[in-house]
Amino acid sequence: MSAADIVDVTEVIEEARFGRLQLLILVLCAWIALLDGFDTQAIAYVAPVIAEKWGIAMAGFGPIFGAGLAGLAVGAFVLSLAADRFGRKSVILLSVLLFGVFALVTARATTLNELLVYRFLTGLGLGGAMPNIVALTSEYAPKRMRALLIAIMFCGFPLGSTIGGLISAPLIAAFGWQAVFVVGGVLPLLTLIVLLAWLPESIRYLLTRDVADVRIAKLLARLDPGISATAASRYVVHGSQASGFPVTKLLVEGRASMTVLLWVAFFMNLLVMYFLVNWMPSLLKASGLPLKIAILSTAVLNAGGVVGAIVLGRFVDRLEPYLVLGGAYLASALFIAGIAFGSANVWTLMISTFLAGFGVVGAQIGMNALAAGLYPTEIRSTGVGWALGVGRIGSIIGPVAGGILLGFGWTAQSVVLTAAVPAVLAGLAVIALRRREPSLKLVPSAATLHH
């Protein structure tokens, strides 16, 4: 076999121009992220209406919120493992099916117990989708713009949350609270048809699973029409096929300290993010601000996250990613302090909130790209999924901790200020990752040589 017959798939993908195939994957994955964001936040938009209709206290929705977030954590853990075994596309389809079906079922709930169960099952799909669209986007992205493309794709999530906030009120007014879940269920199920037809499987995944070369050749031709494949062509990819339990692979071959630091960063930052999203309106209102301004703060936080994701994603591709993201987390701690002390001035408050979102939400999206790049193909979905899963545990603890601190008699200002502490810890963990990233061998093994 001559050198001319060898096609290095990794090199082709990483050096390819951004073309139609990458754009298609980016748009489809961003749309899934948007649906994910809409359905994740849907319960928060309808909870006050359900509480009034059913004659129950808002405090009763604490377990409902927790059940949805618990489902997100379990879905991230379990379905990311499945994706490294059965493929990105298959698990994405399953995830979208799950959260589409159970969003529709939620519209038929008549008790809090039913809501709890349905939100947990919806969360399984929501949690399983995210690590896999991150992995798939990463595995088709040119190296020079990988972080930026993942950041753009992930912007669909806060955008979906924002759109949900804008349309939920008129939907509820016209058709009742059930309409929010009907929309959140019908759109994913319709999307399944498009995904079945157009969403490709990861080329790198196919190579680790001994898939026929003709399928790989067709995908490469769509990626780069200039590639001339023949019957004698051999395809190679950096890495090797995983064996054994994939989670253990996250902690061997020099990855243990890297993985733990990554988990710390995800845990701490998602704790901060969900603390702010859930408690800012209530805490700001308790500080004396009008309810309208207090609610607007969440939209401003998400808007800062969208801008931060795009800006930081570009910096991550061009500069030292650990310093960029770690610095963003550390800076966000200062802006959280600005929120705590700036409630007396609306402009100071909103600027601090926007910049806190820029760092907390924007850097989290950058961290998803970083996590995808730290692990080889055969354990990439597992690596991203378990990082998100550990982070989801933080997302559950954050809102609960806020309620506990208020129960102890802390002021709203003091409770907001405490969120700066985990932001600092997240920043330090990311900066420490600089010295812990393993040097991955880029030599194709027998398992990745195809003919």
Characteristic key phrases:
2 domains, 18 helices, disordered C terminus, Growth Hormone, Chain: A, mainly alpha, two-stranded parallel ribbon, globular, 451 residues
Descriptive account of the structure:
This protein is an all-alpha fold and 451 residues long. The chain has 2 domains: 3-11 and 205-239 and 442-448, no CATH class; 12-201 and 246-435, Up-down Bundle (Growth Hormone, Chain: A), CATH 1.20.1250.20. It has helices spanning 9-15, 20-54, 62-86, 88-106, 112-140, 146-154, 156-175, 178-198, 203-208, 213-223, 246-249, 256-286, 291-318, 321-341, 346-374, 380-407, 412-418, 420-432; strands at 6-8, 234-236. The chain has a two-stranded parallel ribbon with strand order 1-2. Helix 3 (62-86) packs antiparallel against helix 16 and helix 4 packs antiparallel against helix 8. The longest helix has 35 residues, at 20-54.
Brief summary of the model shown:
The chain is mainly alpha-helical and 451 residues long. The protein is built from 18 helices and two strands.
Q: How many discrete domains? A: 2
Average residue-wise pLDDT: 79
Low-pLDDT runs? 240-245, 439-451
Given helix and strand content, the structural type is: mainly alpha
Helical content band: over 70%
CATH superfamily of the largest domain: MFS general substrate transporter like domains
CATH architecture annotation of the largest domain: Up-down Bundle
CATH topology (fold) name of the largest domain: Growth Hormone, Chain: A
Main sheet summary: 2 strands, parallel
What's the alpha carbon Rg, rounded to whole Å?
22 Å
Strand content: under 5%
Distance N to C terminus: 10 Å
Number of strands: 2
The CATH class of the largest domain: Mainly Alpha
Tally of separate helices: 18
Strand order of the largest sheet: 1-2
SSE string, helices as H and strands as E: EHHHHHHHHHHEHHHHHHHH
Tell me the overall shape: globular
